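Hi W., the S-adenosylmethionine complex you wanted:
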Amino acid sequence: MNAPHKSDLLTDAYGRTIKSLRISVTDRCNLNCIYCHNEGSKGTAGEMSVGTISNIVATAVDFGVSRLKISGGEPLLRKDMEDILVSLPPLKDVSMTTNGVLLRERALSLKNAGLGRVNISLDSLNEANYQYITKCRNGVFEKVIEGIRAAVDVGLTPVKLNMVLLKDINESEIEDMLSFVREFQGKVILQLIQLMDFRDVDSYHVDVDEIEKELELKAGCVQVRELHHRKKYLIDGAEVELVKPVDNTEFCANCNRLRVTADGKLRPCLLVNDDLVDVSNAPVKDMPSLFRLAVSRRVPYYREQKEI
Ligand code: SAM
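Structure:
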């Protein structure tokens, strides 16, 4: 891969260069989490073909994008997920966020098709709690745990466990989650996520600043990631990442991600709905200008207000 010329990078009016693409491949899901944002979609969209997905990713790669996150809905509901992976151009990092329910059976075929690593949603290690959050039936929690083990076994690592912090539901489980992560000796990372308001979730909000303070006190080492300036903590051998998007100007100022909806629209920001750019039926030759249009519409959702 030759590095693109600087003028061929996608940089928005706020100086943020796009380095990663987050593409939803379906709006369908086999869970019904009480807080889910469904990547901003109302859940009625169609799905892109393998060819369309591949063309969109290839266009992004031509602009220097090197990281891809596949999302949904639940991406593993697509039976052609492996075909999608095989069709992709070379990338530095190809990851998928999944609820893990269908992962055990497909971990190896996904790895062989080119998937690098997975994020797995696991909001609780308590089965009753898990069922309450995801509205799933008996046996599903076990499948997710098996999915995590399978992902580690086939090397879809580091596996990140996504835990959305929910008041009075799972906020007291962080220590248990850290112990679980330690079992995997560095191959599993805990990702604590601040709840974003997409449904009627007011009563579930946790004081994330308090949790951040506790992590800082316990951590032997704190690092800052380039993406969103997310903080990473090392606590007695367990790695924890904190994702704190709400009211966070630093998070938005360091957002280098462009999103794609399941029906093929470029989405400049998860929190904005009227700036989408449709590329689903665009000829490949028109895609670069549509990417530029979407990037020109990017505005940090939370930003410092300049005094006039
Ligand atoms: N079904 C897949 C999964 O479970 O990873 C992919 C889609 S799901 C929308 C992707 C991630 O979004 C989940 O891991 C969850 O942690 C996060 N998420 C969903 N709704 C959220 C919300 N309201 N606030 C914060 N994170 C949320």
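The chain has one domain: 17-296.

W.
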